[in-house]
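Hi support team,

I'm opening this ticket because the web form for multi-chain structure prediction keeps timing out on my end. I have pasted the exact lines I submitted so you can reproduce it. The total is 969 residues across two entries, so I didn't expect it to be a heavy job. Is there a limit I'm missing, or should I split the entries? Thanks in advance, R.K.
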Amino acid sequence: MPSKATIDRVQAGKDQLQFITCGSVDDGKSTLIGRLLHDSKVIYEDQLAALARDSAKHGTTGNDVDFALLVDGLEAEREQGITIDVAYRFFTTLRRSFMVADTPGHEQYTRNMATGASNAQLAIILIDARKGVLVQTKRHSFICSLLGIRHVVLAVNKIDLVKYNKERFDRIVGDYMAFAAGLGFTSVVPIPISARYGDNVINQSDKTKWYQGPCLLDYLESIDIQSDVARQVFRFPVQWVNRPNLDFRGYAGSVASGSISAGDEIVVAASGRTTRVKRIVTQDGNLPRADAGDAVTITLEDEIDIGRGDLLARPNERPEVTDQFAAHLIWMDNDPLVAGRNYIFRIGTRTGVAGSITAIKHRIDVNTREHLAARKLSLNEIGFCNVATALPVAFDPYEVNRKTGSFIVIDRFTNRTVGAGMIAFPLRRATNIARQPLSVGKSERAALKNQKPCIIWFTGLSGAGKSTIANIVDQKLFAMSCHTILLDGDNMRHGLNRDLGFSEADRVENIRRVGEVAKLMADGGLIVICSFISPYRAERDMVRNLVAREEFIEIFVDTPLEECVRRDPKGLYSKAKSGKIKNFTGIDAPYEIPMRPEFHLRTMDQTPEQLAEAVIDVLKARAIVHGH
Amino acid sequence: MQQSGCRVVRSCLLLRQGYRPKRKRCAKWHLTNNNSVSKKNHMLPKHLRRLEAESIEIMREVVAGFKNPVMLYSIGKDSSVMLHVAIKAFYPAKLPFPLLHVDTTWKFREMITFRDETAKRLGVELIVHVNKEGLERGINPIDSGSALHTRVMKTDALKQALDLYHFDAAFGGARRDEEKSRAKERIFSFRSAGHVWDPRNQRPELWNLFNTQLLQGETMRVFAMSNWTELDIWEYIMLEKIPVVPLYFAKQRPVVRRSGATIMVDDKRLRLQSNETPEMRMIRFRTLGCYPLSGAIDSDATTIEDIVAEMHTATVSERQGRLIDTDEAASMEKKKWEGYF
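Hello R.K., no limit was hit. The queue was backed up. Here is the completed structure from your submission:
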C-alpha cells in the first residue's frame, strides 16, 4: 500500500534546524543556498527554466547556471547583484527540515543580520578561500555570538579557486580559531567547499581527499541542537487570556523553555503569587505535559490576577524582576538613539512598556570588539546600555534564555522598531532605592494653598515670546495670591544644567532634569511655570508623563521663524546664521511642533499682555485657579 | 461540538452611496466538553507540531494586539489549514474574528459550495465581498486579461472590504516558499495608510517580538503560515484529516487547452473557441483561483495520501499553474506594491 507507506514516512517525523548564512558581498552565500536548494531537489523544473533565463540576463557565471539568482528575490537587488534584506528559504531532507535565513553581507545591514540570527540555532560563516579571514568575517561572527548562536560552520568557499589547497585551508582555519576563541561558541566546524561546483556541500568531494570531516549537509542533518534548550528552566509568557464564559479562564501562550505538567506549582513572576497548573488545554484534548515550543492554554487551580505580559515560572526557578537592567542594544533606525529619551519596549509578551535608555555605557566596534565612549548610537551600531522601565519587568539574562532575555525598542511617534536588545544583568539599584512614603501629600499641600498644582509648559522657538508671556502670567497669578515658581531655560542653564551643551543628547538631559524639578515642585503644591524651547516632542511628553494627565498644560507659543529672526532679542539668530553658534533651534537644529497642545498661542496679532490674559482664562477654565 | 450559527454576509460597494452592510457579530464564545485526553496531536511529526505552534502564536498575537482583525479566506488548501489552526489557537473560545472571502465571481462552483459548507460546519462568521463596481464595468478574466481582472476584482476589492469594515489586521495564508519575493516578506507586513506596501519600510522582526503598533489608517497583513512549505501543508491536511475542495483530487473533468494550460470548463462563460472541444481528462489542481486562470495537472491522485506521494516526486512548482504570475517579469512583486495579498 503506497498510501500507508506515505503516512508512515511523514509520521516518522523529523525536526527543524534554523540557520543563517553570513559572509561578505562576494563570498557566495546566495550561491551556496541556491546550491543546497538545487541539490536537495526543492527547485522545480519551471523554476530552473526561469533560472536559466535569468542567468543569461543577469548572471555572473558565464554560461553556467547562477544559483544565486534562485534566492535573490526583489527586482532591485537582482539588478545590483547584492542581497539587501533577509530572505527565508526552506528545504527538507529525510532527516530534517531546514529554514535558512539569507542575510546580507553588506556593511550597512547589521540590522538584517541580527534579524536573521535572532531565531537561528547555527550559523554558516562563509570565507572566500582566496581572501581568508576579513574584517567582515569578524563582524559577522561577533553578531552571531551576541545574538546567542552557539554553533558555527566555517565554510571555506571557492576552494576550487585555490586549487583545493590544504595549506591554504589550514591557515584560514587557524586564523579564525584564534580570533573566535573569545566568542563563546560551543562548536566551530570548518569545511572546505565550492558552492559553485558542489564540492563537500551535499557529497564528499574527491578533490579534497585530505579533508576527513563531514560534508556540509551531513553535518547540518546531524548536529545536536535539542540539548541546548532541553536543559532550560520553565518559562511561560502569557500571551492572551482566553475567557469564553464565566466557567473558563485559560492563559494562552507558547512555552518559551523547559516543560510543565498538570499539577505542577507555578509562580507569577511579577506579583509573586503562586498556584498550581490545573489543566493544559488544547483542542486535541488535555495534555499531561507541555514542552518548549508548544502553544497551549493553561488553567490554574486558583483565580489569581494574571494578564497578557505576565511570565509564569516554577517557584524555585524564578526569573529576575526589576525596572532597571543592563543590555546590549543594536540600533536599527536612521534617527540615532538618544540616552534619556522615552521609548516603548516590548519584552516577551509584555508590550507597550514605557522606558528609556538611561545611559550608554559604551559602544562596541563590531570589527574589533573595542569599547568606545558614546553619547548616542547610530543606525547599525551596537552599544552596552542601562535601561529603565516604568514598571518592573520579568526576564532572564539573554545568555541563559534567548526567548525571555530579548526585547525590542519602538519609537513612540512613528511606531518603528528602532532597536533590539539582549539583557545582560539586572541592576540592583532599582531594588535598593525604595520610595520613602511621605505623610503629607500633594493634595494636602495644594488644598492649603487653595489651588491645583500643575506644570504650565511654554514651548516655542527662541524669541517667540515664551519668557515674556510666562513672566506676565507669573505676575498675574501672584497678584491672585497663587503660589507659583517660574523655571526659565536660561536661568536653569546657569545652575543645575550648567554642565550641558546644546547637542541633541544634552537637550534631552536638560529637559529631563527640568521635568524632574518641576515635578518635585508640583508635588509641593505649586503652580510651576516653565519656559523652555524644548524642541523635541519626546521630551515634552516625557515631562507630561511625570504628572497626572490634568496637571500638565502645554502651551505652544507659536511665532513664525521669520518673526523670531526679525525680533532676535538676544542677537542669537544672527550669531547662528554666521555660524558662531551651532545646533541653534530653527536654524541648524529641528523644532518639532506640538501635535495637541492644551493651548495654542498665536502671537502675531496680540500683545504679550493679551496673550497672558488668555492663558489665565485657560487656567480658570481648568479650575487650576479660582477667578476673582 | 460546534454550533452551526453561521452567517454569510454579502457586501458590495455601490457607487456614491454610503452603503454599509450591517455586520452582526455571532456570539463570540462557546463552550465545549474539555476533558478528553489528547491522542491526535502526538501523531504529528515534530516539524509540523512546531509549525502549528508557531502559527498559533502568531494568531494569538494578532488577537491580543489589534482591535479588529479579519482572516482572509481564499477557500484553497492554505486557507483550510490556516482556519483549522486558528480554531485550535482560540479553543475553547470561538474564532474571535470573521472570515473574509473576496469573491471575483469567477471561482470554481465547487469552491463556493465548499466555502459555504465550511462556514456552516465550523460555525464561523463569513463575509463575502465583491467589487460591485468592477462587476458593473464588466471586468472579467477572459476579456479584460488576467492582470486587470486581478487588480480590480481581487486587489481593489480587498482594499474596499478592509476599508469598509475598518479591519486593522488581515491574516493571509501566503507562504514564503511560494515565490521569490515572498521569501523576504515579514510575518507582520506593515501597510501605510492606503494599504501601501514598501519593502524598504518594513519593520525588522527579531525573535518572536512582533511590533503590532499602528497609527490611524495604517494596517497590518499577517502571514501566519509564512514558514510552511507546500509539502508541509499537504502532510498536515493528511494527518489532521482536514476537508479540502474536491478539485484538489483527480477526477475525470471537462477541459480545454488554452495558452499552454489545461483549463477546466466550469461554466458557459468560458466561451469555447471554434478549435476548442472539451475533452474529459483525469486532472486535478495544485492551486485554485479563478477557474479560467487556473491550470490543471494530469494526475491520478485521488486521495490525500496520493497527493502527498505525488508531492514527494513533483517536478514543477505549484505556481506554474497560475496564469497570473506569468504576466510580466517580477510580476508578484508589482502586485504586492499595488496591495495584492
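A quick check on our side: The mean pLDDT of chain A is 87. Let us know if the file doesn't open in your viewer.
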